[in-house]
Amino acid sequence: MMPTGRRRWIGFVLVLALVAGGSAASWLAMLEVSEVQQRHAGLLMDHNADAIQRAVANEASRYTETLADLSAAAAAQSTFTSEDFEVMTSRLNRERLPGASAVSFVVQSQAGEAAETQKYWRERGASHLRLRTAGSADQHYYLIFSRALDTVTPDVGRDLSAAEEPSAALLFARASGSITASHPYVLLKDRKLPSGRQQRSFLLAAPVFRAVGVTGASSGEFMGWMVLSMRGHDFVEETLQAYAGELVKVTLSDLDGTAATAVASTTAPAASLRDPGLRRVRTVRVGERDWQIYVQPTDRLLSDTDRRLPGATLAIGLFVTFLAGGLADSRRRALKRVDLATSALRSDIEQRKAVEARLRESEDQLRHLALHDTLTGLANRALFNERLAHGLRAQSRTGEALAVFFIDLDGFKAVNDGLGHSAGDLLLIESARRLELCARSSDIVARLGGDEFAILAEGLSGAEDTEAIAERIVRSLRTPFDLEGQPVTVSCSVGVAVQEPGVPAHAEALVQAADEAMYAAKSAGKNRYETRRYTHVPPAERAGLPSVS
User: Fold this and answer.
1) What share of the chain is helix, strand, coil (3-state, %, to 5)?
2) DSSP state of 399
3) Cβ distance 483 to 419 under 8 Å?
4) What is the pTM of this model?
5) 8 A C-beta contact, residue 182 and residue 101
């Protein structure tokens, strides 16, 4: 018979081993739940950062397109007057240009020529113009015409050379012939405001060249600049706040080399998470300058239940472990309480499974968002390229032809500018539905961006299949649209590139051929399609653009 002391020692060792093993298992379970939670939060941050980057790029594109249109309209006038400026800018407002303060026309004048410049523009409608020269610089930049887009009255006649930032942007825009953004600064007209109302701002400048018997606008007579002044905080609040919400905080900065100058941040009601692994940085090119988008998570990114889950997992595991260890001395009580511990552990396992199922569902949703267009629900460029690469690999086995259709809407910009962006969005959504009806059930329909769509058709038996699909597309999209009671008619230009069996596959060249065919259709009068048959890539050109017959 085993001595009592020895039995007691063995029992103590067993209890100690049970407690140590259970504690280790509970700690590992907590780490696993934390890792899954971190991965889920990272996917959420990637999705939010990409959406915010697209929003900034889209708004910046709208501003530069507006300035380019104004510059072209001014250059087309034989004599540019105050009345011309008022007509050109009459439809501009903060709804179309969020964060904008004013749109203006600025001219350059040599030192000592202010009186002559003032007389010239007074004769062209600026009857109350009074130029106010700042400093003793050789060049001065005077505000001649201006339309306010906010509540602050434009300071017409002011000399912008009083600030280095707008002067540098104007000079670069003229030299490069392109729209240029300034370094952040406080607008001159805002410097009289209380410091609490002053914002870091910037301007976009588009040079105006009147063509004089030459090709190329930047080679003609220089008239001045069309300028759009923007307040940084207003721009961030009116464009990015809706995307940021309570989940993230967004800071927009101007990049000058490696130095970043913060312009403004969104307001976040929740505290920021101190987790460097969840911070995201994106960059957008605007007006020849780089803007940095810094996205920080807040503690609203994860729900209170999700944040407490790792700690709860550890607590339950330790409770079960110590409960089992404390009852090891008594068989009767141990068996009874082991049942309780088993029930608690089973509940914990079920809870973990439910959490993991929610995380997997969230990951599937985020993957779908990453591969599909948020407006139309169609595949996006990334998914289209992935399916095209798969189709080219499969073609070597099937021996069937495949084709890429590149579709561009004719007249979309007129609808978007004339009826507003909501009407433009409805037109894109309805066009996407029609393209899905034109395609076969096995085809991939994608929106590549803006009003550009693409279709990947595999398993084609001949040219008849390709022509039938292209004719359906052209016929369907020229049928009038009903945009909430507003009849609209557009058309489309379709480029078709056919990859014949036995021809070496080259996805980039095939897409390029479809794009070139689309532009050929547009140049030939629109509302039609053109076909290119991709043949081969000569060895000397394999690293560059493909040959297309």
Assistant:
1) 50, 25, 25
2) -
3) yes
4) 0.53
5) no
